[in-house]
Amino acid sequence: MKRLHDKVNIIPVIAKADTLTPDECCHLKKQILNEIAQNKIKIYDFPEMIDEEANKVQKPLRERVPFAVVGANHVFEVEGRKVRGRKYPWGIVEVENMEHCDFIPLRDMLIRTNMSDLKEVTANIHYENYRSRKLGGVHTDGKPAKVSNKNPLAQMEEERREHESKIKKMESEMEQVFEMKVKEKTQKLKDTEVDMHRRHEQMKKGLEQQEVELMEKRAAFEAEVKEWENSNGVTLAELRRKSLESSSKEQVDGKENKKKKKGLF
């Protein structure tokens, strides 16, 4: 119980209460409560209710702790009604009779009156204590740490602040990475622009060089033509004109010959 009282709700129960007399049962209950107090074991504490009627319901439940219960699988008929209980030579111990055992108060406490409070205590106290111990029980280097006795709400607030600081750190790192990526992209675009400008200048110089070479070839060709004209005493224009005149004259002569041939027949 010492190992469990800070992890779960403990509700002390006395089993096989039908083996005890009422005086023995009362004495055993007091003895159990004294031992629980001496060993500083925390059992489920019934909450104080604002409503007086609710307090009236809770008071008899507190007085019956620990609950003395009897279990049975058989059903018997007693005075025209069926009851679950255990049969002895001197009579029948009824499970659902508050004069015989505390089964009904235990059932009502667990299922009807205190179920929501049991859930809240488990979730808000026991689980949060367990969670804070587990989260604070190991350092970042993997070595066990001392168990913290902080309030679960304070522990949650501290975890929230740590989470926010981690988020801010991640955001700053992401911004740095983004800025670095933008700088790399900008530098790449600048390098591409410089490379394209360099290629343009190279192509421009190549075209200019080709133009110069063509001009030189043209000048050399014209000089060669003039030299040929001077050596032959005739220009290319005159040769072209004479060639045209001779070809036209041949065409005219050919037409006249055809007419003469037609006239012979």
Task: Describe this entry's structure for a reader.
The chain has about 260 residues and is mainly alpha-helical. It is about 65% helix and about 10% strand. The protein has 6 helices and 5 strands, in the order βααββββαααα. The strands form 2 sheets. Strands 3-4-5 form a 3-stranded antiparallel β-sheet, with no helix packed on it. Strand 4 and strand 5 form a beta hairpin. The longest helix has about 80 residues, at about 150-230. It starts with 12 loop residues before the first strand and ends with a helix. The model is unreliable at about 140 (pLDDT under 50).
The dominant shape is: rod-shaped
In total, how many beta strands?
5
Roughly what fraction of the amino acids lie in strands? 5-15%
**Cα-to-Cα separation, first versus last residue:** 149 Å
* DSSP helix fraction: 55-70%
Largest sheet: 3 strands, antiparallel
Order of helices and strands: EHHEEEEHHHH
- Give the rounded overall mean pLDDT: 83
Return the structural class. Answer: mainly alpha
The low-confidence parts are 138-142
Using only CA atoms, what is the Rg?
A: 57 Å
The number of helical runs is: 6
Strand neighbour order, sheet with most strands: 3-4-5
